[in-house]
């Protein structure tokens, strides 16, 4: 059985899930952002932590993102 947890925009992510996501971001080989401006601090924080941990980071998004100045690769393109 799979349990789906939904966090609505503006809601807080439970601390245990946020901690797991942060550890995964810091420990992964690469962190790819697809179709997000990263304007929410929770999303930006994950990318920033990965970048600071030396993880390869990149973004594919149309328009400006909050992390444009820290990622080495930004592709300004639509998904799909």
TrEMBL record:
Matching Pfam families: SIR2
Organism of origin: Quercus lobata (Valley oak)
Coiled-coil blocks: none
Descriptive protein name: Deacetylase sirtuin-type domain-containing protein
Secretion signal span: none
Alphabetical list of InterPro entries matching this protein: DHS-like_NAD/FAD-binding_dom (IPR029035), NAD-dep_sirtuin_deacylases (IPR050134), Sirtuin (IPR003000), Ssirtuin_cat_dom (IPR026590)
Entry GO MF terms: histone deacetylase activity, NAD-dependent; NAD+ binding
Domain Deacetylase sirtuin-type as annotated: residue spans: 1-80
Keywords, comma-separated and alphabetical: NAD, Transferase
